[in-house]
## 1
Amino acid sequence: MKKLYLLLIAALLLVGILAGCVAENSGSSDSEGEAEAGGSEGESAGGEEGLDIAVVPKLVGIPYFNASESGANEAGEDLEGVNVNYTGPTQADASAQVKVIEDLISKNVDVIAVAPNDPASVEPVLKKAKEDGIHVMDWDTPADKELVDLSVKQVDDEEFGRHMAQKLVEAMGTEEGEIAILTGGLSAANLNLWIEAAQKEFDENYPGIEIVSEKIPTDEKQQVAYQKTLDLLKSYPDLKGVLAVSTPAPLGAAQAVQEEGLQDEVSVVGSALPTDSAPFLEDGSLDTAVLWDPGKLGYLTVALGKMLAEGEMPEDGQEIEGVGEITVKEDGKTVIMGPPADFTKENAADFDF
Amino acid sequence: MKLSKESILGLIALGTFLLLALIAPGFLSSNNITSMMFQLPEFGLIALAMMVVIVTGGIDLSITYIAALSGVGAALMLTNGYGILPAIIVAIFFALACGAFNGFVISKIGVSPILVTLGTMVLFEGIILAITKGNSISGFSDGYSLIGNGYYLGLVPLSIVIFVLFAIITAILLSKTSWGRSVYMYGSNETATLFSGVKNSRVLMKVYLYASLLAAISAIIMTSRYNSVKVDLGSSYLLQSVAAAVLGGTNIHGGYGKVIGTVYAVMIFQFIRNGLNLLGFHSSLVDVVIGAILILVLAMNFFSDKFKKVAETRKAEKAA
């Protein structure tokens, strides 16, 4: 036993000594790394033709990101001189995503567009990519603003929230009555922005609408949304509408409405994928699903990646072929794809995500 | 000449390296080699931890959540203005507490490891969610980020040095100490081990403590490398680490397993993952290839064991 302890203590001491060396030497090594990187980049630029644009989703193999993959690949075929490399982790694990990006840096791609699982965790690797002369952008979910050259957003949060509110009023067929708001989680920043915008819309344009309680969290789970909606229907028999943000919430709410047979009395509107919501749209338990087209988002990401690599920046109101008119925010690098898309009983079957 | 399981695996590792060096563009670039050296340690440490547990015939399904929880401990210290050393100590303390809990239930109460760690996996995940509310904790000091991103003597990544160090310590502990011998004995036959005067519960307790220590070191490297911690930190390593340990020749029923085998297995995983990414393979295909190699090597191991046994019985028959 004594030997073991001695060994451990010796190891600890060694670690201490190592740690001491590192702090002093890291500065010189960094610059060395850069020099090497610069050299290898030069080689590849001469050897290969066309632009390599890498698009990194949060994970591969789910309908949403499959749809954006086909969009990105389509853009690769449409645009001249662009090789699209759509690759991501098979699990939504931040560390797996970082490795994918590191390998892309080794591959010397020209542009990396990432939808970060955890914006903070991709910060160091994106910094490294930038040091190696790679153009860095984000799509779907924003990364650190200072770091990216371009940020592609699907919708304007304000517009999206207000749009959902209008759709709900439209579905209810009246501008008066009680409604409830379900959300995925209380701390999700984008969901909160949408709800705030929706509340503003109600306050300003539909004073007859009464929101019965604070926004109700559903833990991003359909089952929880279903339970909470059942409770709501019991506690507020006059409830006219439910606004559900986060993709599982509208499904759970619609499920509850369907089970109680209240399709005509209670309207449900929320953000959901069309394939998931089709069975509920069918019988009117879900009135409208509002989201965006992830395929277009993938297409736009690649198109903008090409512009970025060629030294152009997108302009406000610019027409992007295959996508439509885009909006550029005041900071000059946040691009909004366009208005939200509505999925209804009539068109839900046309989409494959 | 007779080669051990581990040497064959070492040759396979060398073979994959050479093959990928030939076919994957940029595989040998200094940039890529360094990036692989940065990627390997965090997974390697977890695989070593898993190996030590599997040698006893157990499994630790909570290992990545132990790592995440200890990462949360370090993150909380760092973001509240404490220095690097206290943060590391707290990280190790958090992990050891988790390991002690696992060890206690498994060794003193005697519940089977897969059930206990399945339970603690959910338990630790719940604790992390309660602390972080599902958000990530980020923004550590530059000094801390050197652990995962810095170079030792300006040449090799510090994290790989730490990994090599712990691989050597683990190898020495397992093969040169009486605790190590008891671990192998317990893995082959726990009843016989008990009757030969070994305190089984103490051996087991130390196994789970040591595994969680390795998880803590991995967590420190990960948090420093990613500059943040979240509930799912390293969760993709859980089953991969079992795969690496088994590919490395560790017997899933316990009793056999070598550090060097696991290290080779981790290297094979690393080469293939990186090489196929460079070749532009789809990520799901990378998983398919790794799965196929795993099955292939395991089948080879199984048959070579079987032939050996057949040959031995024949020899015995002849002698008789």
## 2
Amino acid sequence: MGSLTDKYCIVGVGETPHMRPSNRTTLSMACEAVSKAVADAGLKLSDIDGMTSYQIGDSTTSPHVATALGMRLNYAVDILGGGSSGEALVAHAIGLIEAGYCKTMVIFRAMNGRSGRRMGGQTPGGPIPVAVAEGDGQFNMGWGWTTPAQRFGMSAMRYLRDTGCTTRAFAEIAVAHRYHASLNPKAIHRSPITIEDHQRSRWIVKPFRLLDCCQETDVSVAIVVTSRERAFDLRHPPVFIMGGYARTLTDSPQWNYSRDEIHYVAGNYGWKRAFGMAGISHKDVDFISCYDAFTFTTLIQLEANGFCGKGEAGEFVKGGRLRIDRELPSNLSGGHLSEGYTHGVQMVIENVRQLRHRADDACPGWAEGRHTYDRKAGCRQLRKADICCGMGWGWENMASCLILRGIAA
Amino acid sequence: MPAPIDYSKLRIVPDFDTAEWWAAAKEHKYLVRQCSDCGHKWFPPIFPACARCGSLKPGWFETAGKGVIHSYVVVVQPIVGAFVGTAPYVVAIIELDDCREAGGSVTRVAGVMLNDEPEVAIGLPCEVVYEETADPRIVMPRWRVSGSAANAWRFAE
């Protein structure tokens, strides 16, 4: 980007409630999320001329949504992908709008992540009755080693060994993000937890306990991207895209385990480009979001994106540093760990709301940007929310990032 | 030792790139890919080209099936039905002793340990063991700890 910094904006966001189960099709949820995001921007569906989405063979497509909602599009593409794809599709939108293929684009993800296809192949009712191990699965399914928890656990275990960090550092992430969820009426889990609650929760796959793992929810999310010229006419203060990187890969991305360091993840290859484009340093960042599929993935993204030194994240997060009103607030909606699971887009949505100063919390005047900042009364709006760094994660191998700023920055 | 894996609930489907690997496992041989042009080794065999030189002529290298545990996880809540009665079980990443290359490249494989969690640690030597399955075409390589190491590291929480 560089020369495109601040030329493109996120102007609309929308989502369906996190449900378990939704009792709806992904198409039905996608129509609602897209409609809400477009309305949030103050646009009509006919103002949208491009649509993209991502999925893993578990969702509806842009042509289906366009048919259902009566939209005639100049561009419609649905890509294969999970985490880190939403931020990457923002980069696609910038390129398409810049090149004149489209004027205003909507990006969605719709998934029945609990009642439909679950990560790792588990059925809605539980373990896979008869597992068919083909393709990549020949070398993981046959070893009972399929879920993201089981796969990321390998790099987490090696990280603990290499750094001397303990799982109390994992707990810091769970506690901070849960506290933010307690301030979010939309979150699935809102009861605050302690480090000890984390340490006492049951094992899922060592080194991960239950409270290290994200939720599984049925949900759809959507965001609208357009140029700054159009953005100023719309309903909300625009949120400017300062920089980013899009689905950057490590070497050997589909077999992480022969790499020099299995916990040297993809963000390491991207962050200098993103901060260079944005023209900022880490100390300009007021808050962050991380792809918290697991507590550990947050920890390692802090290192990978240069917020702390290599091997130092455990020390960095100690004592509640990632909580609201502290040094580096993270995942202010509660994230995947506590709000629900959207393959990353909910973080972009929350970041946009924070940067607009319109977090949808318990404050009666939130929609007009009036907040009390009283956490005990359920306010989750940051006092100063000018610049945000949002970090996306696919696996160890794949990462994206979006650095955003509000109108005040 | 963990309880047996119920292989009747698992169907392995070899493909054009992996059929020879599974055929070798049936003969109790552990193969990795080796480039016919530059000699680079890699795993798993689903990748049909050499990531070092770009050659499209992958050959095979028969390893001695010995290595060192590089990392591991302990699956307490199983997801694959064949492993429901096996949990808790250890899946390990094993760095093969005879696949270290001059340029620093290593080849690491994965598999299910025959040992219970307390016997497993990063840094321990291990060796392959072959296990019959319910499918006469498929023999599954597993791994067992074969010695001790001064620098072994175990997850103790």
